Structures are given as structure tokens and as C-alpha cells.
Queue: 2 jobs
Job 1
Amino acid sequence: MDVPSLQQLCKRALVASVIHEPRMWRDLNYSLPPDLVSSVLVSVTPIALQVLQEQLKESHQEFSKQSGTFRSKRKYVEVFESTQLCCYNSAWKIQANKRWPLGIKKRYCNALSSSELDLLGITEDESEVDWQQRYWEAHLQECLNEAAAQASAPFYEGSIGDVILPDGLLAHIGLQYVNTYGVSAFEFSALKYHFCRFGQYARYLRIRSVLCSSELINLLISARLQHVAFYSVTHASHVEGLCLLLRQNKESLRAVEFHYCKFSSSALLRVAESMTLGDEPTHFLHHFFVISSSLSIQDDRLSGSASGFVKLLHSCRYLQSAIFFDNQLDSLDASRIFFVLLQAASSLSILHVSENELEGLFVMELLKSLSSIQCSNLNQGCVSFPLKVLDLRSNSLDSIAIQGLSVCLKFMPLLEQLNLSDNPIEDDGIRALVPYLQEVSLLELNVSSCGLSSAGVSALLEALLLSKQSLKCLSMAHNCLGRSIASPLGKFLSKGLVERLDIEDVGLGPVGCSELQEVISHIPNLTHLIISKNRIGPAGCKLVCKLISESRMLKVIESSWNLLDLESLKCIALELQLQCDASSGGMLEVLDLRGNPVLEASKIFEKINLDGKCIVLLPDFKLDNQFFNQHDDDP
């Protein structure tokens, strides 16, 4: 048993004193060195840390009110204050990581990709995060989740604010010391206390329908929500609570999400009106996501009147991103939404209309609308829209629809990312798209699961070679390309025109893999290669080793479920060791070998020392063997 040092004992006594007598910290705060302040702050409970930081701010305000004769002293205190606040912010970060070791759920993480977040400029800088705000916001979200669970019980009749939170949740912030701060344990356990005390820190909340009521509005009176996601809102009473919350935060709201909701046209009209600023039909929303929600637009179209949803879209003048996923939209409704957004939102950069089974009529109606705009603006030159990302995956678009889409895309000269995956466009569709691709500068193209053959993909790769267009990402996964794609793919890779290539499950096979390995000599710029589920077998070992040894820019190779045997993994491990020992050193950071049925895989890689330079993901034989017992490679 280790005997604590005198310094450790003093720190424990100081922490205990601060927790039970927080006011003493006000005097000690400016007399202790920063390192001791930091060690004390990370040892107290979150509720005690909150009290200590509030006292620090009170102390700073008192110094600020002093007369001009103390100006130099105030200047010293302000400098010292900024140093102390850094200590507090670091303490809050440690508290957050301790409570949520897997991290706190971030905004937009499930809706937008990392490249789309970069495009919008809303990536998070860790050094600028207010961890006090982040901590209490996440705490309030857990409180809301617990309240929703209790309020959903069949016979629950109490008010939302009186929901009693479990001791396990309260223990995280210091339930055992709550009496020290003049609050009874019963009062502390009620939901309303936490929103009254910490509601000011709420910026992003996810709210279930059962909580959408006027009572929640009162609980959130001190919040200035910037981003809110609503779930399972279907009844009129829930819509009323939703509108009240939107109206209360309409000046601060920048993002709204609807998940698994069902809105009538009148409900959508009320939602639009609740966010309107003054007499003008506009609001400050930058991001609007409708996920797996039903929108009643057809009824208004049949009656000849503008729907509430269309009026809502007309007010989205500052919109930057919009997502409509699995909304049961038909072609006419989707084309109308698309057209209205392009007209109303002059800053719209990202648009997803996916999983809606639109078929070709959607493209024809959209083309008709865009052509009408062009005809009405002949004197003003070519009409264009600032869209940079267009996601049309899983909409049953065929080759004929792609022919019309290639014309529509000419109205979007700034387009950087195009996703057409899971549409039956086939080779004729990709050939119709080739002339457009030669005229623009796309950065990302996804044509996975599009029913393509090697002939169609070869035409695509040849067009990209002729245009000398560099792509950040190209995905052709889950198409039956076969071994014949090896030669054109090798030529394309050798020109260094792509950074991330996804050719998962394209039927490359061992012969195609050998041909690809012979064709490629140098692969500049490639940083991420996905070649999983191609059954390349032992022949694929030479390709993987060649990529490891010769591709200095390559950081990630995904070669899972490829039937690599024991000898193949030994060769790959030896090549990794050679690159690690070399003075120049390879840049490979991740190698995924999961799903390859080798029992001794872990033993093979235990014998080599990679010094943490490369992470190797190995097969879990117990899990993977369940698959191989049912599926083998015997035709």
C-alpha cells in the first residue's frame, strides 16, 4: 500500500474543505499557484466546480466595479482571471471525459459527413470548446431522456418538472454533497431544479414527443437553443408544444430536425408561422433535416393551394443544408421541394433527397421547372444555383432519368459532391453522365450499387483520365465489375487522380487482383483504399504488400473478408515490419484484415513490433467462424 505524501494529504484536505465550504475558495483562488488550482478543480464534484466558477465570476465583477485608482490591480486580476478560466475549462473537459468516456454526441454527426461539415465550415476546434456548457448540456439531455422514459409509462399522470431523477444519474454531479449548497435532496432530484439551475447552458437538445408541452417551455425559459431535434411528433397536442418551443427560440435557432414525425398541412403551416420573424415570412434557419417523417403535401396539391410545407420552405432564405430522407415523397412533391429550395435559399450548399423512390418523373418535372426559369431570364444570361453537394441515393432513378439529370446539373456549376448510389442507372446512365463529368470539377462521386458492369465503369474511368480531373473520393462498390476492370483501374490509379477509392465487393477475384498488381507501378496521392469482400485469396497478398511498400501516401487499407490465408498474413506482417524498420518508413496507419479465417492471426502480429505506427484490425475467429460455417467459397 502506497503511503500518501504530505502534498497529497494537503490537497485532499483542501479539496474536502472546498467541497464543504466553497466560499473559502474565493479567498484562496488568487493566492494559490495555477498547478495546485488545477489539481483541486479536477478532484471536486461537478456541482462543486460549478459553484467555485460562479464565485470566481462574482469576484471578477466586484473588482471590475472598483474605482479608477485600482485600475492596475484590476488589470492584473483580469490577466489572472483568464489563466484561471483556462484551468476551469480543462477541469470541465476532464469531468466530461470521465462521465462520457466514449464522447458526447455532437451536432450533425449522423446527418452530415465530415467533408460536408468542412464545406460548411462548422467543424469543431477542441481548443475553443466551452466544456462547462458542453457538460451541463449533455447532463440536461440525460435528464430529458429519463423524463421521457417515465412520462411514457401508461399510467403516468404527474407533471414533467416533478419527474424524480434516479440516484445513479445524480451521483455523477455530486448528490452526496448537495446539502452543503442549501438544497434538499428531494428538491435536487426533481427535473425542474436541473433546468432552473443549468438550463442556461442548453444549446442543442433532442426532445421526444411526450415532452412537447407548455411545461417544457417553462423549464427551458433560460435556454437559448441553437439546434433542436424532435422525435415521434404525431398528435396535435405535441405539435402545439413543438411550435411554442420554436417560437420561444426563433431568434437563436439555426438548426431544426424532425425524426419519425407525421405532420398535416395545417401543422406544417403552424410550424412555419412559429419561426417567422416579425411581419416578414423568413427565419434564421441554416440547417433543416426531415428524417423518416411523413409530410402531407399531396392533399394541398390536389386542392390547388400552396401547402404549409412549401410556405415553410419559402421562408428558408438563409438555409445552407437541407435533408429529406425517407419521407414517402412522390416525384411531383420532391421536384417541387427541390425547385422551391433552389429559388428561396440563395446560400443552399447541401441538399439530400434520398430513400424516396422518386423514379424518372422527378427529374423530368425538375428539368421543366428549371427550363422555365431559364426562359424567363433570357436577358440575364445563364441561371445557376450555388449547390455544392447533391445526394440522390436510393430513388429508383434509371438511365433515362440520368439523361435528364445531366442537363439539370448544368444549372449547378459549383457542384463538388454527387451521390447516385443505389439507383439502377446501369451502363447507359453512366455514359449519359460522362459528358457532364468532363465539364465540371467534381471532388466526390458515388456510383456504388448502380448495376454497373466493367464496360460502364471503364468508360467512366477513361473520361476522368481525359479530363485529368482529381477526385478526393470515388466509390464504385457493390457493382459486378469482375476481373476485366483490373487493367483500366490500374491505369487510372497510376495517374494519381483519386485520394480515396472504394471498390468493395466488385467481384475482382484472385485473377483480377493479380492483373491489378501487375498493372500498377506507382500510385501517387492514394490515401485510402477499400478492397474488401473481393475474395482475392492468397493472390491478394502480393497486391497488399506492394501497396504497403510502394505507396508512400497510403494511410488506410481495408482488406477484410478476402479469404486471405495464414501464409498471406505472414507475408503482410513481414512487409509491415520492414516498412516500420526502414528509415524512410511507410505512412500506413490502419490495416483492416477482419473476416479472414486465420486462427493464428493474433499470434502472427504479436511477433512484430510496429511501435504504434500502424493499427492492424485482426479477425475475431469466434465471430467470423460463425459466418464461414454457413458460407464457404465452393461454387
Job 2
Amino acid sequence: YGAGKQPCGAAGRERVERALFTAFPGRHVPVGLAMETIVGYDSDSSGDERPSGMLVNTAPAVATEVATEQYVPTGSKVLTHNPTAEELWTPAQGPENPFKPNTRSFNQLQGHAEGMHMNEFQFQEQYNSFQTLGFAYDPSDRSTNSFVQSNHEAAKHLKKQGTGGLLYERKKSERKRLSQQAYDNLSRKNFRVDTSSEEKPTEQGTGEGTSTKASSGQSTSTDDSVQAIRHLKATRDALGRSFVDPPSSLKPKDYAIEQSFIPKREARVFSGHTKGVAMVRWLPKYGHLLLSAGLDGNVKIWDVYEHKQCVMTYTAHKKAVRAVDFSNDGRHFLSCGYDRSAIYWDTETGKAISTLTNNKVMYCIKFNPEPSKQNEFIAGAQDRRIYQWDVRSGNIVQEYNEHLGPVNSVTFVDENRRFVSSSDDKTLRVWDYGVPVQIKYIADPDMHSMPAVAAHPNGNWIACQSMDNQILVYGCKDKFKMNKKKRFLGHSNSGYACEMTFSQDGKFIASGDAEGRLFFWDWKTSKKYRVLNAHKGVCISCAWHPIDNSRVATCGWDGLIKLWE
């Protein structure tokens, strides 16, 4: 066929067959179909002429695009080219190892991020110097010894004095002198902090005197007088943390020392209770807050590290408060008083979650230290019984009734599986927790009443404050025998339930007495080491700091709370 679709001659047909055989060897192609591929062939031309416009492509089909992306291995630390973001995030070739840790997060858009080694001591040196003195070395320029300082008053004071160097680069005596000068500039002119003028509640929703009424919750009784007075204007800091959270500068590992030290001087005095103070307790683990029970019916919590003042006053009891106790995390605490009630508090909000009462005066109260039983506590009452409460339901779940007099103290021993109770009947009784049957009865004709009991940190001994002016020691394992070779003498506590406290390593024991003195003994030798004139009245309670082994808090019937270092 030609351009005009006219039949061609025999010569043209032969030429088409030869071209088809050359292009498709071994295949049979119909000539009529193949003739349509010939364009512009003229039937009138001679047989020697070649057809014009014939196109036959015999090359195989191949990909003309070339891959330009280069694979970057996951663990590679050297880049030989400038990769794009897509190349950096390309998945690894081949099957992935399911047991290999995921390291993809270390590949950043700018390349592979390699971890940098930093000396722990150098970091702590700069951190503690900045927190304590207000300045530290500039990390961007260490060659010229330039400093980075904050707006802290201590840094300004040290700058005026012309003193330099970091906290650990100075001599011990110089560090003490400079820290004392900075402390004096930061604190008020006198060490005494008086919050009695701040206790008056103002209108609801205003500043420091904002009062918060307690919610009813799971309680056996409610009272409209339950409220808490906040003394801080800012409820949270810049990081959104409340006063219950420990400050960033307080790290337990900084105080991880093997040896305890006996305090030598009075560091600070807190006043705010209008009457005497019956008990003090540190916040567990960190100890940046101090809880006090006052005979004026108020429970106060004090910040001893940052604000150094009363943070909140809990005013729910109508009469004097006898005892307080923190939970393990410090978010809640218990208080009991002579108004025949025990209150379960929220430390941060100041709300009384529940008010529990059985119309009996409770002389002692204690949370179960076991983490799984933080909803239960036991309280010794004046009706010779020990009550076990559940704060969730507000009901009494168990009663221990063996004593013949009011119960003065309860102390958990033997990994919190048992507890020891003391009473005015001049006996000690040991109980399995949850079982209302005594397993050990300790009594002797020569025994006196022991209203205060403290457990040694190693868990093998308990110290009992006897009313004959001595501290007796009993084993708290299986036999509960008295250690006749170990007793502590020299103080005068007859007629007063003066509490005792141990250092965290168990090396020292401390106790107040009726004359306001604070005694320290060596636990191993029973030798009296030091006596401090702590209070003008009775020094009724003392507590060793949980992480700072050289700090002790005391309280007395003169209405003061003192810190000793």
C-alpha cells in the first residue's frame, strides 16, 4: 500500500518481507499488517528505489534514569558527601534486627549526633558553685576564666568583696566565712521568723491569707472550721512545682557521706505558734519541709531551705495537737489532738480529706510504712486500745485491746510486719500487724512507764525513754530482750515524754529533757558527747535530718522551733 492506499507490486512485497525477517528473526508477521507501517511508499517508483519514512526500532527497552541517592549507614560518623534530609532518614537496608536497640533518634537532620563525655565532678562543681555562690565559669570561654553570674544577692556581695574562685577551690575556713556572709545578706536582720501576724485569714481569694475549706471526702464527720492558711504569695515556681516538691539545689547524693556529725551551733529559730510545740517531723527522703504540731491547735509546715519561713498553717483542731506523721511520699500527713479527732490532710492544697473520730483522745498516730499499705494507720488512744483505721473508708478495721492503761506510743519493727506499743501500765507489748493478739509481753516490777520509743536505723534495736531518767535498749527481733550493757544516762526527763532520734548511720542518739537541754550520746559506747541548751522550757521533741547528717530540729514548750548544725 502506498500513501494513497493503492496495491503495490511484487517487488515492493518482496522488500517488505525481507525487512520483516531482518527485524523479527524466527517470527511470522502478517505482511498485510506490517504494510501499514510503511509510510510514503510510491507504487509508481522503480523497483530499485528504497521506501521513505520507514521506522524500525530493534533496541531493547532500558531505564535511562540513574539513581543519585547515596545510602548513609546508621552507625556512620563520617559523611563523605552532603546528604539530604531524606537520605539521612532512609531506612536501613535488609531485614532489621529485632533485638538491636533503636538508635534512629540519634540521627539528626544535621547529621549524626555523637555523645559527649562530661566529668561528673566538674559538672557538680559548676552547678553547686552557681547555686551556692551565684556564679560559675562560663562554659563557652574557659581560657580567660570568665564567670557567669546570676542576679543572686550572694553573687553581688561576693563581687563587691573582690573574692573569686569556685566553691571547691577555696579553703574550708574561707568557704565557711564567705557562705556565712552570703547567708547573712540573704536572710533577715535577725534569724527569728515570726509568722504570727500572717496567720489571720483574709477574704477568700486574696494573697497570703487565702483560706481553703476542706472537702468532705470519705470522712466520718465534717466541720466548717476546717481550713488552711497559705503564707506564700506564689503557689508554684517557674517550673510549675509546688512547695512539696524538693528544690533543684537539694540532691540526696550530695549528702551521701558515711559519717554523721553532732551539731554545734544554733542555725535558725522559727516562731509562729502561740503556745508550745509538741512534735516536729521532717518530710521523708529530702527533708526540705518541717512539720510541727502546736499546743495552740495549729499544725504548721516550714520551708527550711528556700523561703525559710512558714509555708502553710492547718487550722482544723479545736484543741491542742498531740502528734503528726507524714506519709512515705510526703503528699499527705496525719494529725491527732485532744479534740478526740484524727485528720487526714493533703499537704499541698491544705484540704482535710477526712476527719476520723471515735470520741476518744488519741495520744499517738502512725502511718504503716509499707508502701502497699499507705492507706492504713494505727493510733493509740486513752481507752487502752490501739485502733487501726482505713482512710479510704474512714472505718476502724482492727482493734488491739490488751493494755491496762492509755497507749503512749506505737513503733513499727521487723520490716514493718510487727509493731511495739508502750502504755502507762508500765509494759511493752509486741503485735503482729493485723492480728489483735499480742505475741510478746514485756513487764518487770522494776520497770517504769516508757512513753517514747524510737527504732534504730539498722532495725535490730529500739530505744525506750524510761521515766527513771534513763534510756533503755531492747532487741526487736525474736526474743525482745533488754540489753543490760547499753543504757544512756545524764538527762532529766521524769514526767515528760521526751522523744529520741537517731542519726541516719545509727552512730549517735539524741534526746531532749525537762530542763530544755539537748543531749547527744555515742550509740556504741553509751558515752555522752555533747549537751546543748536548746529551749527555756521542756525540749519535748527532736528529729535528725534524713539526708543532712549534721542537722537536727528541736521544739519545746516555749513555742520555738530550732535548727542545729
